[in-house]
Amino acid sequence: MARVTGIGGVFMRCPDPKATHAWYVKHLGLPLDGDGFVVFKWAEDPKVDGGNTIWSTFDPSTEYFGESGQPFMFCFRVDDVDGMVARLEEGGVEILPKREDSEYGRFAWFIDCDGRRVELWQPPVIPAKTGDDTD
Questions:
Q1: Domain 70-127: which topology?
Q2: Could you state, in order of their start, the residue ranges of all structural domains in the chain?
Q3: Residues 69, 3 contacting (CB under 8 angstroms)
Q4: What is the average pLDDT value for the chain, to the nearest integer?
Q5: pLDDT in the model for residue 19
Q6: Alpha-carbon distance 6 to 65, whole Å?
Q7: pTM
């Protein structure tokens, strides 16, 4: 049966794609590959290439997204939401006051250089099985 195994890409219109790209690299420390793309490898994906997620910017006139002005929000998976919020605050980034802690993990939001709301998600810690499932 077919199933989704991750995020294939995040693509967005930007008034100045190069400046927005540089802002995200600076403030979030996104890793650039040799071609200037941000590629996240997902070892959990059963595909031969290990799976990956692409992050990229596009010119506002692109037709790739459909009609112009389509709203969206994207989410970055992080290993430490508080640490990432602190890093963003140190860089002068606008942090939204709302935080969420739930069984799905920890969430925080910020506003990027183009005025978009962006979500940060720290997945919950799942305790390792001890082999003693007698509770």
A1: 2,3-Dihydroxybiphenyl 1,2-Dioxygenase; domain 1 (3.10.180)
A2: 1-61, 70-127
A3: no
A4: 77
A5: 92
A6: 19
A7: 0.66
